[in-house]
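INTERNAL TRANSFER SHEET
From: sequence group
To: structure group
Subject: Na(+)-translocating NADH-quinone reductase subunit A

Please process the attached sequence and return the structure record in the designated field. Keep the field labels unchanged so the import script can parse them.
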Amino acid sequence: MPNIITIKKGLTLNLKGKAEEVELAAPARGTSYALSPDDYIGFVPKVIVQPGDRVQAGDALMYHKQIPELKLTSPVSGEVVAVHRGAKRKVLSVEVKPDTTIEYKHFDTAGVKGMERSKVLSLLLESGMFSFFKQRPYDRLANPNAEPRDIFVTANFTAPLAPKFSYLVQGREDELQLALDALTKLTTGKVYVGVGAGELTGLQGVERVEVRGPHPAGLVGVLINHTAPINKEETVWTLKATDLLVIGRFLKTGKVDYSRTIALTGSEAKETGYVKVLPGARFEEALAGRLGKKGAHERIIEGDVFTGVKVDEEHERMSLGIDQITIIPEGDDVHELFGWALPRLKEYSRSRSYFSWLMPKKEYTLDARVKGGRRAMIMSGEYDRVFPMDIYPEFLLKSIIAFNINDMEARGIYEVAPEDFSVCEFVDTSKIPLQQIVRQGLDELYKEMN
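Return from structure group:
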C-alpha cells in the first residue's frame, strides 16, 4: 500500500507567469563566476586560493574552518581574479574568470553501489557536492561528522510558479536513482522521498511518500512532521531532488558539473519556460534582456515569491542551488485611490475581502508591496489555518521572540525552518517578518546549544 499524506491546511496562490514546458535558448556566457559562503548558513570560510591561481572545475576554493573536509568547489576552470572581502575581512566571494573550454577535475566514482559510507561521504565532501545537504535541527549546512537518523528529499514543489520536477527529471531517472543509492549509504535509517500524486513510481531502495494538498505540502518540513518527527538530540539531513540530479550526474561521470535547468517565471517575465544555466554567473550577464518586460519597476527574485531572495547589488549572482527565477511588479509606481476599500475582481484576498474569491481558477498578478504596516501579533488562528504541521505556530513564534529555550523546545523548534512559516507570513494581517524571526531564533539557539 503506498504511503500517502493528504494536506488540507495551506494556500494555493495561483499567479500568472507559469513556466511552459519548453526549453528556452541557452543563456550568455558569464565573464566571471563566483561562490559566496553566505549562501550556506553555518559555513565559516577559509580561502585556499589567491588571485592568479589556476583552478579546474571541481577544485576547492575554500573550506569550512571548523570542518576542514567540507569544501566549496569552483563551477568553472580558469583563473582566480579576486577574493572579495567586506567589513573585518569577511569573505564575500571568490571570483574566477572562466576558460573558453571548461576543464574538469576527475573523481573516481565508479561502483558507488558497492562503496562504504566513508568512501561515499569523502567523495561528496571533496567534490563540494556535500554543500547541498542541510540538517535539522537548526536548518543549516549539514555536519558530516554527525550521522543522520534519516534523510529526507522533496521532489514535490508546490510553491507559486515552482518548476515541475516531472519535467526536469525526464531522461535523467538513472542519475536520480544513483544519487538516492548514495544517500542510502549515508544513514542507517531510511531515505524518505516526498513526491506528487502518481510521480516517480519507479524509485527503489527508498521510502516513497506521496504528499497531496496545497502549499506548503511540498516542503520537506511537512514531510518530516508527517512521517518521522524529530526529537531532541536527533539529526536528519534534507535535500531537494533538483540537487540530487546534480549529485547523480557527478556520481555517473566523475565530473563536478553544477549546471542545472531552472524555471523562468512570473507575470513580468519577458519569456517563460525552462533554461539551462551555470550557477555563479551574474543575472544581468547570463540573462541580459531576457528577464523583465519593462526593465524598470520590477522585482527579480531568485526562488519563489514566498521564500526567494531579491536580486540586487548584494545578491547579483545565481547560487548553486537555484531552481527558479520569478519576476513580478515592484509596485513602487502604483498609486491607488481608496485602496482596499473599493470592491474589486482583479485583486487577490485570502480573507475574501474582494469578490475575486468567486473565481477560484483565476490567475493573479501580485506586486511586491506589503500593503500595510507592522502591528502586534493577533491570536486569531490565521497562521494555524495555513500551517499543516502538528505545531501551534503562534505560540512557537512568541517563545522564539522571548527566546525561552524550554518553551521553544516544547513547542517544536527543532522541527522547523523559516520556509515552513512562509505562507503564515503571507497571510499575516500584522505584517510581521516571521521567517526572519525563525531564522534568528534558530541561529541564537544553535549558539546557545553549541
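Handover comment: The chain has ten helices and 19 strands. Residues 108-253 form a domain with the Rossmann fold fold (CATH 3.40.50).
Transfer complete.
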